[in-house]
Amino acid sequence: xxxxxxxxxGMTMQLRCxxxxxxxxxxxxxxxxxxxxxxxxxxxxxxxxGKPGVLxxxxxxxxxxxxxxxxxxxxxxxxxxxxxxxxxxxxxxxxSCCRTPLGNTSRDAKMPYVGLVTAxxxxxPEAVSQAFGPAGRVVINTxxxxxxxxxxPLGFITGxxxxxxxxxxARLRGDRDTPFFDASGRPLREPEVISREQRAxxxxxx
Length: 206
Prior knowledge:
The protein has four helices and eleven strands, in the order βββαββββββαβαβα. It is α+β, with helices and mostly antiparallel strands and 206 residues long. It has one domain (12-192): Metal Binding Protein, Guanine Nucleotide Exchange Factor, Chain A.
């Protein structure tokens, strides 16, 4: 992990799966943005996990985007699993012990992006909002929501710029470390790629 990862300074967000087997932490200083995504893929992923509390009332997933170099797992690494909704889709990481979602990454290890699902944050909602801003300030893919959601055009723009700027900054800093890939760029877990039929069934679930 990069040498400037903060420990014991109040600048970390603790990560924990619901059963406590997987634990970790995130350096909060350079989080890109917080957003709620209402796309069908994120919803299908939540249904694949079958984990209550991941989706909000309109079918959205609350995510904090950051560089993988800002994330590390300290316990239960053997319980971390990976799946994908298609052969070329995002890698979606979760705790196999209790099916708590952890984060989404590109298949490219060099891409300095992970969208951490806030369901794995070991903190009260107020503490998460204090660290990353309130939920709902940036919402995306609202047309796919299961109930009406007010779009945030300005938030969408600023959130997108935050992600782009954060990724550029991560590259300039040389943030190459990642807990999700090995030194050769291969995922540390072979992703389970579900079939088209499985994906279709997940998308149709209510």
